[in-house]
């Protein structure tokens, strides 16, 4: 597998993908087979940029985005998956569940260890996997078949004072919303919820 030349990639991104800085629109120019850096080990401090740099990059993206032109008869149909995303601070949910976690540790005679479980069907498996991902600053999207675990989280959130925001989710829904912003007529086939209807 080719390695990313992070220095070149960084310069290109923060130039707003300017051809003079990037050298080409082809991403291959940003890849170096002998750079000694792989995709999972960016140099320390690579992602630490000032607010001015971040805002400048966002402004460049917005400028490029404003140049997108969509045909007047644009129509898109989507129907892969739609759901309701619930956004909240994970730390607040963990704090809320702390009594259950401590009780579980006591009953099972085992402390929580940050490890990744192949499947998540129990509170322990969830907390241990979450702890591992959180410690390493990695995001993760996992599926659990456990209805009990799902409702433990959902009911705990809804019965608590935790600030949360519910919004339409799922890849096809996000694509549909984006296409509408661009001026396309969008047809979506999905199970409906109050969040999706609004």
DSSP strand (E) fraction?
5-15%
Helical element count?
Answer: 8
The biggest beta sheet, please? 2 strands, antiparallel
What number is the mean pLDDT? Answer: 76
* Strand order in the sheet with the most strands: 1-2
Helix content: 40-55%
Structural class: alpha+beta
Principal-axis shape equals extended
| SSE succession | EHHEHEEHHHEHEH
Low-confidence stretches: 1-6, 24-43
Topology:
Elements: E1 3-4, H1 6-14, H2 19-22, E2 31-32, H3 51-65, E3 75-78, E4 83-87, H4 90-108, H5 123-135, H6 147-158, E5 165-169, H7 171-181, E6 185-188, H8 194-197
Parallel strand pairs: 3-6
Antiparallel strand pairs: 1-2, 4-5
Could you explain how this protein is built, in words?
By secondary structure, this protein is α+β, with helices and mostly antiparallel strands. 44% of the residues lie in helices and 11% in strands. Among the domains are: 63 residues, no CATH class; 75 residues, no CATH class. It has eight helices and six strands; from the N terminus they run E-H-H-E-H-E-E-H-H-H-E-H-E-H. The chain is extended. The relative contact order is 0.15.
């Amino acid at each position: 597998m080719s390695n990313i030349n992070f220095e070149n990639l960084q310069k290109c991104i923060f130039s707003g993908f300017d051809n003079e800085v990037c050298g080409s629109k082809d991403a291959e120019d940003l890849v170096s087979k002998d750079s000694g850096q792989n995709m999972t080990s960016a140099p320390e401090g690579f992602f630490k940029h000032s607010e001015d740099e971040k805002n400048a990059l966002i402004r460049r993206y917005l400028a490029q985005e404003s140049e997108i032109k969509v045909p007047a008869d644009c129509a898109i149909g989507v129907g892969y998956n739609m759901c309701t995303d619930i956004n909240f601070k994970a730390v607040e949910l963990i704090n809320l569940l702390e009594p259950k976690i401590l009780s579980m540790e006591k009953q099972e005679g085992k402390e929580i260890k940050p490890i990744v479980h192949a499947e998540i069907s129990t509170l322990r498996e969830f907390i241990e996997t979450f702890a591992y991902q959180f410690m390493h600053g990695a995001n993760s999207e996992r599926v659990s078949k456990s209805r009990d675990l799902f409702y433990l989280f959902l009911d705990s959130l809804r019965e608590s004072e935790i600030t949360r925001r519910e919004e339409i989710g799922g890849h096809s829904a996000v694509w549909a919303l984006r296409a509408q912003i661009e001026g396309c007529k969008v047809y979506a086939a999905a199970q409906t919820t109050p969040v999706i209807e609004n």
